[in-house]
Amino acid sequence: MAAAPSGPWSGQQGAVALAQGGGWLFLTPRKGWRLWVESEARLVVFDGTQWREPFTISELANLQRLGVNASADDTNRLAVSSAASLFSHAGSDHRLKLNKNAAADTASLIYQTGWSGRAEMGLAGSDDFRINVSADGAAWKTALAIDRASGAVSLPATPPAVLHAQSLAAQGPGFATDSYLAGSAIAIPAGRLKAGTRYVLAFDANKTAAGLAGAVLTLRFGASGTTGDAALGALTFPVQTAAADDGRFTLEVTFRSAGPAAVVQAVAALTHTLSTTGLATVAGPVRRATSAAFDATLAAAQIGVSVNGGAAAAWTVSLVQARLENLA
């Protein structure tokens, strides 16, 4: 009944009127009673003082937990169990925001199988965007990382397609005996060699008038990165002459096969300032060598080159560059 009812309801303000046997039965509402207001198409509940809707907008804005077909808890304060969830625009755009407290905290989306994490994307422990993956939900690997400042993308778990080595420091005068060339060694990742893998080396050589023997480049494979590693092939160049000269040696090595019975083929070339004197009595000599079968599955193996300029040689090498490419 309204605040001031009249007629047969006079004096029954606040009561609930029930038509019965041609008359009216008046009931005093109790806290918790619920009524459906047909004319207004809404549900109301009596709170002990007044009739009101079960929830107000302010109450909905400050819910401690909400479960939709699921049980929410203190960690998962919003829990939804359904075949799909839809977040749509209200006019044009729609953005879903995840906010964290500090850079070292995490704001991310985790994808699970049987409640065990398999992939995560977001700001995990830093402000750089990452995509992490896991085989068991415990150990995680970063598959992709994007630097927040530069935008540079890296693939930390993906081995590089090309490996590099170099030396910018002068070596020599020397090489009168077989010497391992600094900057030529490249460590080979386990299982990455295949038929077609290539090792490429280039280095300069400055010769004094001393030394007349033909230079020898020896391709080496082993775990120490020294002249103690196995020699896969020796490439001997023409004899030198008693004249100072500058030149550049290049070496290209191709794995014809890999595994426990690997074979490599090497081609080396020399270009030098003097045509038929100095580093060689030939203007542009080319040398080839093919290895015997060797075990390329050696753990912690390196591939590199040693150089022998011959007795009394006084070479200076100022730049060495090497690369290993077309890896598995």
The main pleated sheet reads as: 8 strands, antiparallel
Overall CATH architecture of the largest domain: Sandwich
Low-pLDDT segments, ≥5 res: none
CATH class of the largest domain: Mainly Beta
In short:
The chain is mostly beta strands.
Describe the protein in words.
This protein has 3 domains: 10-52, no CATH class; 99-158, no CATH class; 163-325, Jelly Rolls (Sandwich), CATH 2.60.120. Strands 13, 14, 17, 20, 21, 22, 24 and 25 form an 8-stranded antiparallel sheet that branches. Strands 8-9-10-11-12 form a 5-stranded antiparallel sheet, with no helix packed on it. Strands 15, 16, 18, 19 and 23 form a 5-stranded antiparallel sheet that branches. It has one helix spanning 57-60, and strands at residues 16-20, 23-27, 34-37, 42-46, 51-52, 66-68, 78-80, 106-113, 116-124, 129-134, 140-146, 153-154, 163-167, 171-174, 179-180, 186-187, 198-207, 216-222, 230-236, 245-257, 263-272, 286-290, 302-308, 315-317, 320-325. With 328 residues, the protein is an all-beta fold. Helices cover 1% and strands 43% of the residues.
Present the secondary structure layout.
Layout: E1 16-20, E2 23-27, E3 34-37, E4 42-46, E5 51-52, H1 57-60, E6 66-68, E7 78-80, E8 106-113, E9 116-124, E10 129-134, E11 140-146, E12 153-154, E13 163-167, E14 171-174, E15 179-180, E16 186-187, E17 198-207, E18 216-222, E19 230-236, E20 245-257, E21 263-272, E22 286-290, E23 302-308, E24 315-317, E25 320-325
